[in-house]
Amino acid sequence: MQRRKTLCKGWIFLMAEMKNVTRIPPELFNLKLNDAIAGELNKKLANKVVLNVGLCIALYDITSLQESYIFPGDGASHTRVSFRYIVFRPFIEEILVGKIRSCSQEGVHVTLGFFDDILIPPSALQHPSKFNETEQAWVWEYDTGDGCKHDLFMDAGETIKFRVTAEFFNETCPTGSLQETQDKSENKVPYSLTGSINEPGLGLLSWWDT
Questions:
Q1: Cβ(164)–Cβ(94) under 8 Å?
Q2: Which of 159, 158, 184 is nearest to 170 (CA)?
Q3: Helix (H) or strand (E) holding 40
């Protein structure tokens, strides 16, 4: 079960309800159980992608704790815990604002600061656009309406507003031999977004400010 919650100005995140059996090593027994579990959950999940859930940001709260137990031969305690975790996973068609990280033939690569795997492909840029090899930037050939065109560069570091059009999750857990895992995971990211700016009001904020 997931629900939306506004957590800070300008960003909206999911709150995901999760369950886990959390291991607390003996050196943490001096802490309150809630504090020890919160630390271990953040160590395990913060800045990690959970398949089909999203990018985990931080623990929101612990909703229930069951009895702790110890396995034979293991001095740590194990506690079944239910908790809510703050997760980044925007809706499809949601409008986001980020910064251009770089440009390539593949399109415009965008970062939100805490999340970098966003691509705006050439087909989703303002039309017509071309890639400038010298500047390593995409350029919108803006028609001024008087028969002239003005080149608007999409430079790295510029603030850009875009619409989320697709999301992709990839299973990155090891399977098969180590070599097969390395080959398959070489260019695979666990979670990525595709965006679009091919409509009025989207693209570089500087375009519409002026």
A1: yes
A2: 184
A3: helix 33-45
Q: What b-and-e string marks burial along 67-79, b requiring 16 or more CB atoms within 10 Å of the CB?
A: ebeeeeeeeebeb
Report the C-alpha gap between 57 and 166 in whole angstroms.
21
Tell me the sheet residues that pair with 120: 108
Which is it for strands 11-24 and 77-88: parallel, antiparallel or unpaired? Answer: antiparallel
Measured in degrees and rounded to the nearest 5, phi and psi for residue 43 equal: -65, -35
Task: Give the global pTM.
Answer: 0.83
Q: What is the pLDDT of residues 91-117, one digit of tens each?
A: 999 999 999 999 999 999 999 999 999
- CA separation for the pair 15, 53 (Å, rounded): 10
Instruction: Give the pLDDT confidence of 153-188 residue by residue, as tens digits.
Output: 999 999 999 999 999 999 876 555 444 445 544 568
State phi, psi for 93 to the nearest 5 degrees.
85, 0
Extract the runs of DSSP E, i.e. beta strands, from the chain: 2-8, 11-24, 49-50, 54-69, 77-88, 95-104, 107-111, 118-120, 129-132, 137-143, 149-154, 159-169, 191-196, 203-204
Burial per residue of 198-208, b for 16 or more beta-carbon CB atoms within 10 angstroms, e otherwise: beeebbbeebe
